[in-house]
Amino acid sequence: MNSRVLVVGDAMLDHYWDGAVDRISPEAPVPVLRLTGERFAAGGAANVAVNLAALGASVTLLAPLGVDDAAVRLGGLMAQHGVAVACVAAEGYRTTRKIRFTSRRQQLLRADIEELPPPWLLTLLMEHFEALLPRHDMLVLSDYAKGALHECRPLVQRARERGLPVLVDPKGPNWQRYAGATVLKPNLSEFTRCCGGFASEQGMCAKAGQLRKRLQVDHLLVTRGEEGMSLFSPERVRHLPALVREVYDVSGAGDTVLATLAYRMLEGNSVEEAMGWAAAAAGVVVGKSGTASLSRAELEEAMHA
Predict the structure, then answer these.
(1) Of the listed 14, 169, 249, 255, which one is catalytic?
(2) DSSP character for 150?
(3) E-assigned strand segments in 114-264
(4) What's the pLDDT tens digit per position in 211-237?
(5) Which residues touch 261 (CB under 8 Å, ≥6 apart)?
């Protein structure tokens, strides 16, 4: 596969402290975690890039990073997974890091290190984007509301002007900045926050149709956890049940869905066909610990099963 994907968004480092809890602290009524090890994984837009690379796509990651240890580790993970890095970095800005404390593979606590990137860094990111876009066949935007995509409408417009498909995982209340995208992929809670609640499937369909038309997006794919996925397209609405065998950890499952959808579309599948593959992929990764990816062989095995 020679198709090239440009992933832009909020990249972060997932840092896990693993151990076991055998007692309660005498200082306060809190568990004492006896540490046995630590591990690191790509998170956010970086996890989307890793998932795409694992499936066989050629991937470039563009994101704001700090000049710090987290950025170095994240760069090492990208190199390990074959992802090209074209990130912009700034002294004094801290790379987003999620630190999770786990006992016997169950999460006890999460601590976040995050801050908004300075405006000049986003200007630099846009300049890099303009240079990179002509060398790619698809744009994927992974928004985690950390600031990288605060003003991303020009990115969508530039890509569509070049005839490239644009897939977006949205966050926050202002979705007008994603207007014109090919596929918008919120989860159910994000969709509800944006459009309001609904009392029936008919109500959801009505709100989804209104949103799709207002934003002029070709397709709206709402992931609904144990209720599966719903795809709202101009021609019809399709609901797909969840294909989960056993849920262990949902961290990063949305990244896998976005990456698989993008990969299958690059392979020539329709959005509806790609949704089936994405559902199969989600059923695999939620059975893994932490943010995870799956190989092309795992995906094909899950789909055929």
Answers:
(1) 255
(2) T
(3) 138-142, 166-169, 183-184, 219-223, 229-232, 237-240
(4) 999 999 999 999 988 888 999 999 889
(5) 167, 183, 185, 221, 271, 274, 275, 277, 278
Say if strands 183-184 and 219-223 run parallel, antiparallel, or are unpaired: parallel
Nearest CA to 138 out of 227, 274, 268, 262 is that of: 262
Angle (nearest 5°) at CA 190 between 258 and 249: 60
Range with the lowest mean pLDDT among 103-112, 121-130, 191-200? 191-200
Q: Tokens 């849920």 map to which residue?
A: 247
Whether residue 22 lies in the annotated active site? no
Neighbours of 171 (CB within 10 A): 20
The conformational region for residue 46 under phi > 0 = left, psi -120 to 50 = alpha, else beta, is alpha
CB 259 within 8 A of CB 55: yes
Q: Give the pLDDT confidence of 85-94 residue by residue, as tens digits.
A: 999 999 999 9
In the beta sheet, which residues pair with residue 88? 64
Nearest to 63 by CA among 157, 147, 130: 147
**pTM to 2 decimal places:** 0.91
Distance CA 170, CA 240 (A): 21
Q: Is the confidence at residue 96, as pLDDT, over 70?
A: yes
Classify residue 297 as exposed, middle or buried by CB count within 10 Å of its CB (0-12, 13-18, 19+). exposed
Rg (CA), the chain: 19
Provide the token pair at 148. Answer: 């990288």
Q: Which of 110, 101, 98 is nearest to 32 (CA)?
A: 101
Joined tokens for residue 108: 């006890």
Helix (H) or strand (E) holding 49: helix 45-55
Which residue, chain included where needed, has tokens 């709206």? 220
pLDDT at res. 245: 59
